[in-house]
Amino acid sequence: MKFLLLIQWLAAFSLFFLMFKDDTMLAFCVLIFSLIYLFGLLESRKDPQRIRAHIMVGGIMFFVAAVLIFLNDLSRLELKLNLSRILLIVLGLVGLVQARLMRKQFK
After folding, report:
1. Separation CA 59–CA 6 (nearest Å)
2. Which residue, among 38, 5, 25, 37, has the nearest Cα to 65 in the 3D structure?
3. How far apart are CA 23 and CA 7, in angstroms?
């Protein structure tokens, strides 16, 4: 589970640098969302519920960001498909799937 967090944190942190030139404020939001995954990495292995909570919250945050970016592009009738947008959409979709799976483990 920590390996999954590490991969997501690296993807989100690299997304920050990819987005910084185009959309600075969104890039800082992505940086803060990536810190959710980083804090999940720093959690103790003795409490897996907290690690799952970080995965779930980080996934939901990236899903919301991806939906908002998609709707913003759709309202302007220009769908930009550069590397940063694609990576954000992938992180959002993966985050949604993970949040659904982790939520089942909390019940």
Report:
1. 13
2. 25
3. 23
HEC secondary structure over the chain: CHHHHHHHHHHHHHHHHHHCCCCHHHHHHHHHHHHHHHHHHHCCCCCHHHHHHHHHHHHHHHHHHHHHHHHHHHHCCCCCCCHHHHHHHHHHHHHHHHHHHHHHHHC
Task: Give the per-residue pLDDT at 107.
Answer: 65
pLDDT at position 2 is 80
- Closest to 27 (Cα-Cα) out of 37, 39, 19: 19
18-50 tens-digit pLDDT? 999 888 999 999 999 999 999 888 888 888 888
- HSE-up of residue 39 (Cα within 13 Å, Cβ side): 12
| Residue 71, token pair as written in the block | 């709707």
34, 16 Cβ separation under 8 angstroms: yes
- Which pTM was predicted? 0.86
